[in-house]
């Protein structure tokens, strides 16, 4: 029987809190996405402020369908909403999840917040939900995202060529990374060491 829940639990760390996504987060998320005008980065898929309500509806519909557990990311230093992330493409039979559909306000990037958020998600996936593997994906040309995923300790499984259509009509080559359960203890130590240095 799968240990992956139907709704996401709250996950909290020293600098970040992952709250289950709610409609009441819409205004704060719309404000956060304007920090850096994140929707203009061509190799990512981030909603515009006026699209945030539709994006929340989309993610919550996927939650209802059992394929996503979406979160709002909050910086605990000032209790400010700084982004979104999720468990997605959930397969309860393996079980496996992908951590994705993630974006952060520009002021929250390169602060250690992403590392702690990913550590919380990975710890919960492996140690509570009993996942055999956790996957992370990004655009082949998104070097910043690829380096961030590799710093976590994930390994490149391969590249899905012409995998998906971007908003501008271009086809995306998708890099697929993963961490498997047997690798998790070493990856966890690596992440905890990195967080102590932040």
UniProtKB/TrEMBL annotation:
Example GO molecular function: acyltransferase activity, transferring groups other than amino-acyl groups
InterPro entries per record: Acyl_CoA_acyltransferase (IPR016181), GNAT_dom (IPR000182)
Keywords: Transferase
Pfam families tied to this protein: Acetyltransf_3
SUPFAM superfamilies: Acyl-CoA N-acyltransferases (Nat) (SSF55729)
Keyword Transferase included in the entry's annotation: yes
The N-acetyltransferase domain, residue ranges: 16-176
Keyword Cell inner membrane: no
Origin superkingdom: Bacteria
Descriptive protein name: Acetyltransferase
Species in which this protein is naturally found: Acetobacter cibinongensis
